[in-house]
Each structure stands twice: as C-alpha cells, then as structure tokens.
Amino acid sequence: MKNSFTPLAVKVKPSGRKKLISKSKRMQPTEKDELMLSVCQSMLLGEITTGGALKKLRIQMLSINQDQYARMVGVTRKIISEIEGDKSKASASVLNQVLRGVGLSVMVMPRDKYLQEQLIQTEKQVLDNLIAIKS
C-alpha cells in the first residue's frame, strides 16, 4: 500500500534558513496535545517504541514523509528510517535533534516499573504543588 503525502511549501526565515510547511489541514493545539499525551503514555506503558512514537507523530501531526521530515530536522532519511524501524544506533544528540521536530526529547527513565511509577508520582506531586502556589 502506497502512502500519499501532501507536498510542502517552503518559507524562508529571516535567518535565511528554510522552513518546510505542510499544506494539509493543521491540527488544533488541543488535538496535538491529546495526540502527544496519548503517544507518551503508550511509550511509558511499553506499548510503543521511540521509533513508533516518532512515526506516529510525524504522520498524524505533520502529515509528511520521511524524506520531508529528514530535511526539516537536518538529518538523512536513512537516520529517520532506522530510528522509526528501531534499528538505530544514533547518539542521544542526534536522537534529540530528530525528536525535537515532533515535540519530544530523550529522557532517562529507570527500567524498573515500580521506580518509574514512583518517579511519575513524585513529578505529579511537584507539579500539583507548583499549580497550587500559582493559584
């Protein structure tokens, strides 16, 4: 089955760097947030890999193919393909560069599920306290 992707328009930034812009219907910020949270939760639960998350966000959020995305983030299409296929040996720096295009970054997490839960719970308490202070 062949995927069809919407072509991109090119906009030149004041710095002279080209920015690729999808001509497809843009997702609303709330839709992007919901998709991002859903993908991140799936990653935390081990239901999807980093490569799978990148592919899902690239296609659903940006509606672009690997070559277009590679040009957007400044790497080769081969690197994107390897990451999405979970066959990459890319450094954390390259992985961050690639993930940044879909709003993600590399994060160190304990492998132990109990410790992951403890970490998430602690972060939630910190965020709740910050929200309470700002209110």
Automatic annotation (TrEMBL):
Pfam families: HTH_19 (PF12844). GO terms for molecular function: DNA binding. Transmembrane segments: none annotated. InterPro entries: Cro/C1-type_HTH, Lambda_DNA-bd_dom_sf. Residues 54-95 form the HTH cro/C1-type domain. It comes from the Bacteria. This is Transcriptional regulator, Cro/CI family protein. It comes from Shewanella benthica KT99. The lineage of its organism: Bacteria, Pseudomonadati, Pseudomonadota, Gammaproteobacteria, Alteromonadales.
